[in-house]
Write a structure and sequence with these properties.
Elements lengths: L16 H29 L17 H6 L10 H10 L3 H16 L2 H9 L4 H11 L5 H15 L6 H15 L1 H12 L3 E6 L6 E6 L2 H17 L10 H14 L15 E2 L2 H4 L6 E3 L2 E3 L1 H12 L6 H6 L16 E2 L2 E2 L38 H19 L9 H8 L21 H50 L1 H7 L3 H7 L2 H14 L9 E6 L5 E5 L1 H10 L16 H11 L17 E3 L13 E3 L2 H9 L4 E4 L5 E4 L5 E4 L5
Antiparallel strand pairs: 1-2, 3-4, 4-5, 6-8, 7-8, 8-9, 10-11, 12-13, 13-14
Helix pairs in contact: 1-4, 1-5, 3-4, 6-8, 7-8, 8-9, 10-11, 15-17, 17-18, 18-19
Protein name: DUF222 domain-containing protein
InterPro entries: DUF222 (IPR003870), HNH_nuc (IPR003615)
Organism: Geodermatophilus normandii
Length: 655
């Protein structure tokens, strides 16, 4: 029997009649989804892994499969997946994914599960948190990020894509080195694959690439499609023309007469990222690690940028703590210009993760070989195997397996060849003494083995403690290094002060090399509010110098005389909005159009306070959909009111 439906209202309020029923049903679906996750986790608790055969026993899960098993599944019996698959008519893969997802939400993201049960989130919102927040090893950091993200998503129209973008940005900001490790592993898995589509006779080709490579590829195909000669008989869509261009370029390169095209990528890099810090960046609106942008810019411009390793080893690196902030209310992260060609390679080089330590094999003291009674040997082998499995590794494969122990301690599985087996009846003279001597030696060997196991266990614990101390020392050293101080700097001026002379020189060289060089446009400086991250103005070095020399303020470009904004005003509004401002939409604002006057021109001026960026569909809807109202305030806050009276508010995304 179902409980009463969830009553938490949506962020935009309750609608009336059918739409209100849809909202209520959606919240009830979320609540029941959360109950399902809790029930699956409760079922898993009744199927402990201790009931399975231990590692190494005949019929147990192989060590390779066990090593691939996620941490949340290891305490659960491997047969729970099959039981769940039968109960729910799922494949084994789907059942295991549901089991892992349920345990992760219950044990690692409990606040997310509570929000889902309350109807604040729907099932689609759970994925970004599962993919990016749940893997964070630090419990305190994971809980803090989860709380902050849920608070950010509450009370507003937030799609899973928007939450995913926010989640990527926050995880990169607070767990950058782990994110870099994941990126390095993913780069090594790049490839191309094909799978059948839902429609017979069609297939989907997937290519796993780095973000700049993928953005450049799609942009190039779009440019090729747009460059095709106009033909009134050509009824293909732009996407179909892009697919045909891809086939011509790859399968018939010598037969294609497609003209060369330029690829334009918009790269947004905070100043700290260019100085060697870990601040997240953007490539065509996609959040990427700082190292990706540094590699891309170095490849495109031929000008090497500072890296965290450089900041750690530079001779001029300061050794004192970061200076306190003396910045004004605006910071100056750098938005580099759109680039003109696709990167040749942005894959980071493989390197050991920061803070990792190679631990050598654990040496077990070798005892002199002594003959051991065969029956005792078999019992002792099983006992050692169990002890090493349960105590040494906490349920993981043993650090030293039984075969190695047998070799070291001369524990033979077969009886030694000492003559014919004993017969029933009295033992010959002296035989009893020999048997007791062997048993006595076996007990001594058992004691030696216990001592060796205890010594191995003690050394393993000491190594773990040493590794933990070394990792903490590495973390403290990084936090006090120039790269660490740049990453944690509250504003751009503090980041510049914390950087090394070498890093500042590298940044100056980049700006000088690209100021009027081979890029499609020169780099621009994005001046933002230090507290809110809101855009204050978009400028470049010459304009910044003029403003300082003349003592004038920096702000948005002035009012345009006509309907269309000038180049500076157009660039400012697009930099402020970046994506369509309609609630929940993440489409890019098309280049060269769809900046809308909130108050129609000429009654409303052509200014930043009266312009907002929309995708083509939502731009049309603003003017044509009956009963909708769009209200824009001077700071760029957009309020959209539906025909049924629901209101949703969006703000320009902060930097």
């Amino acid at each position: 029997m179902l409980d009463a439906p969830a009553s938490t209202p949506p962020g935009v309020g309750w609608a009336s009649r059918p739409l209100g029923e849809v909202q209520a049903a959606d919240r009830e679906i979320s609540r029941q989804t959360a109950r399902r996750y809790r029930a699956v986790a409760a079922f898993a608790a009744t199927r402990p892994a201790s009931a399975d055969r231990a590692q190494g026993e005949p019929g147990a899960m192989s060590a390779e499969r066990w090593a691939r098993r996620s941490a949340v599944l290891r305490p659960v019996s491997e047969w729970a997946t099959q039981e769940l698959a039968v109960a729910l008519s799922l494949s084994a893969e789907a059942a295991q994914a549901l089991l892992e997802r349920s345990l992760t939400l219950v044990h690692r993201l409990p606040a997310t599960l509570d929000a889902l049960e309350a109807g604040v989130l729907h099932a689609g919102h759970v994925w970004p948190l599962l993919d990016r927040v749940a893997p964070i090893a630090d419990d305190a950091l994971r809980t803090r990020l989860e709380t902050d993200l849920l608070a950010w998503a509450a009370g507003r129209v937030t799609t899973p894509a928007q939450l995913g973008d926010k989640t990527r940005r926050e995880v990169l900001k607070h767990d950058a080195r782990a994110a870099a490790d994941r990126l390095a592993r993913a780069v090594r898995e790049r490839g191309v694959s094909a799978r059948p589509d839902r429609v017979e006779g069609t297939s989907v080709v997937s290519a796993l690439l780095t973000t700049p490579e993928a953005a450049a590829l799609v942009a190039a195909l779009g440019a090729y499609a747009d460059a095709l000669p106009a033909d009134p008989d050509d009824i293909r869509t732009r996407g179909q023309r892009m697919a045909d261009c891809l086939l011509d370029l790859v399968l018939r390169p010598g037969e294609s007469d497609l003209p060369p095209v330029q690829v334009v990528l918009s790269v947004v890099a905070p100043l700290g990222a260019l100085l060697g810090g870990d601040a997240p960046c953007e490539i065509d609106g996609q959040v990427v690690p700082a190292e990706t942008v540094r590699a891309l810019l170095a490849a495109l411009t031929g000008h090497p940028l500072i890296t965290p390793a450089d900041t750690a080893t530079a001779d001029t690196a300061p050794t004192d703590t970061a200076p306190t902030s003396t910045a004004p209310t605006s910071t100056a992260p750098t938005s580099t210009a759109p680039t003109s060609t696709a990167p040749t390679s942005t894959a980071p080089t493989d390197a050991a993760p920061a803070g990792s330590h190679g631990l050598g094999p654990i040496e077990v003291p070798v005892r002199p070989a002594v003959p051991v009674d065969p029956e005792f040997a078999r019992w002792w082998t099983a006992t050692v195997r169990r002890v090493l499995t349960e105590e040494l590794a906490g349920g993981q494969p043993p650090l030293v397996d039984a075969a190695e122990l047998q070799a070291r301690w001369a524990v033979d599985e077969e009886p030694p060849e000492t003559g014919p087996p004993p017969q029933d009846g009295p033992l010959p003279d002296g035989a009893s003494d020999q048997w007791w001597a062997r048993a006595d030696r076996a007990v001594d060997a058992a004691g030696d083995a216990v001592l060796a196991a205890q010594q191995a266990l003690g050394r393993a614990r000491r190594l773990v403690a040493t590794a933990a101390r070394a990792d903490a020392a590495d973390e403290a050293a990084w936090a006090n290094s120039p790269a660490g101080r740049v990453t944690t700097a509250p504003d751009a001026l503090t980041a510049l002060a914390a950087a090394t002379d070498h890093a500042r020189a590298a940044l100056t060289g980049l700006l000088a090399a690209t100021g009027g060089g081979g890029l499609a446009d020169r780099p621009r400086l994005v001046l933002t509010d230090a507290l809110t991250g809101a855009l204050l103005t978009l400028t470049d070095l010459p304009a910044l110098r003029r403003a300082i020399a003349q003592g004038g303020g920096l702000g948005p470009p002035g009012r345009a005389d006509g309907y269309r904004p000038g180049a500076a005003l157009d660039r400012h509004v697009r930099t402020r909005d970046r994506r369509c401002r309609f609630p929940g939409c993440r489409r890019r604002v098309p280049r060269g159009g769809d900046l809308d006057h909130a108050v129609p021109w000429p009654a409303g001026p052509t200014t930043a306070a009266n312009l907002a960026g929309y995708c083509t569909g939502h731009h049309r809807g603003k003017h044509q959909a009956p009963g909708w109202r769009h209200t824009l305030t001077p700071d760029g806050t957009l309020t959209v009111t539906t025909p049924t009276g629901l209101t949703a508010v969006t703000e320009p995304p902060p930097y």
